[in-house]
Recover the amino acids of this structure.
């Protein structure tokens, strides 16, 4: 709760509260009763928030608390929920007021687009989302008003906040290491693989000239991509794009192997590597391959998912977290300049 007595916007709000109080002294009893039933619970600049506003916003939450909480805890939980919902409404009113002052609006089609984006991003149906909302004590209408408020927020903060948010490669890697990797203690070799096939059809087996040409072409491709890796380009990205092996979908990630589990050509290629090193190109019965050793020996690290497959997801998550921090500060600054009185 904040109250800035020096704010010019405070005076109309105070006049409004006083006017309502004075009206209760002179209005007919029936109107006074109506005012008491739907009483004012907060004032935000020149706008009031009533008990019915809180009840409408939190009706699903209140219903769930009443239905699931022990009788002796219901009242306390309802009061806590009302306080939280009131704070949420205050934030929304501040955002709406600021947007109105700047002539910023959000259309119904924008809200629907954001709603559908939530469904697509989470790969769920509308029915599944409604079920999740219901389990959280929220209605679809309340959820959409929250989306609208978020869209207003995004427009309001604009480049002033977004420009300050930076998600670096180091931040992404750190999050990946902390959440997508785990240690193994069996001395396995954890490998990335890239392969370039030359024995690609039955026809090439019966045509030595064609087979020789394919073999040469595969070797050249292997050498070209190997040079890119050695020059510092990302192994997983290149594997996803150029490798002919099934492991390309995982950025070349083939997991862990013991030396005695490897084919001879694979064992010869990786046995002398140190963590982070890339092997020479080796010939296989069907093409050419090379490997990158991610880790080996005691306490070797194994990954739950290939870095390349989750990098964008992590970046988005970190960006959202930084945006929420920046937004929290923005709202705090907005509140400090506003007149807010809880009654």
């Amino acid at each position: 709760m904040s109250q800035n007595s020096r704010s010019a916007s405070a005076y109309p709000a105070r006049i409004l509260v006083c006017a309502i109080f004075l009206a209760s002294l002179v209005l007919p009893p029936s109107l006074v009763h109506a005012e008491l039933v739907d009483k004012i619970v907060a004032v935000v600049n020149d706008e009031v928030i009533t008990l019915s506003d809180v009840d409408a916003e939190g009706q699903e939450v209140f219903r769930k608390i009443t239905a699931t909480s022990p009788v002796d805890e219901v009242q306390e939980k309802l009061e806590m929920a009302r306080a939280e919902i009131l704070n949420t409404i205050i934030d929304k009113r501040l955002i709406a007021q600021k947007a109105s002052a700047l002539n910023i609006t959000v259309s119904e089609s924008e809200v629907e687009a954001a709603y559908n984006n939530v469904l697509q991003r989470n790969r769920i149906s509308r029915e599944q989302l409604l079920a999740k909302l219901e389990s959280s004590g929220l209605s679809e209408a309340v959820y959409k008003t929250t989306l609208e408020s978020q869209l207003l927020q995004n427009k309001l903060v604009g480049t002033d906040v977004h420009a300050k948010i930076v998600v670096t490669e180091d931040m992404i890697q750190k999050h990946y290491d902390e959440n997508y990797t785990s240690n193994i203690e069996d001395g396995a070799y954890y490998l990335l693989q890239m392969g370039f096939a030359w024995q690609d059809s039955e026809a090439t087996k019966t045509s030595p000239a064609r087979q020789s040409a394919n073999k040469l072409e595969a070797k050249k491709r292997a050498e070209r991509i190997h040079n890119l890796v050695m020059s510092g380009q990302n192994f997983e990205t290149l594997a996803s794009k150029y490798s002919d092996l099934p492991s390309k979908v995982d950025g070349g990630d083939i997991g862990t192997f013991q030396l005695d589990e490897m084919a001879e050509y694979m064992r010869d290629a990786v046995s002398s590597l140190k963590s982070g090193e890339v092997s020479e190109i080796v010939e296989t019965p069907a093409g050419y391959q090379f490997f990158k050793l991610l880790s080996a020996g005691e306490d070797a690290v194994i990954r739950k998912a290939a870095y390349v497959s989750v990098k964008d997801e992590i970046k988005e998550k970190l960006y959202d977290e930084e945006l929420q921090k920046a937004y929290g500060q923005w709202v705090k600054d907005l509140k400090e300049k506003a007149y807010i009185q809880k009654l």
Notes: The longest strand covers residues 189-197. The chain has a mean pLDDT of 82.
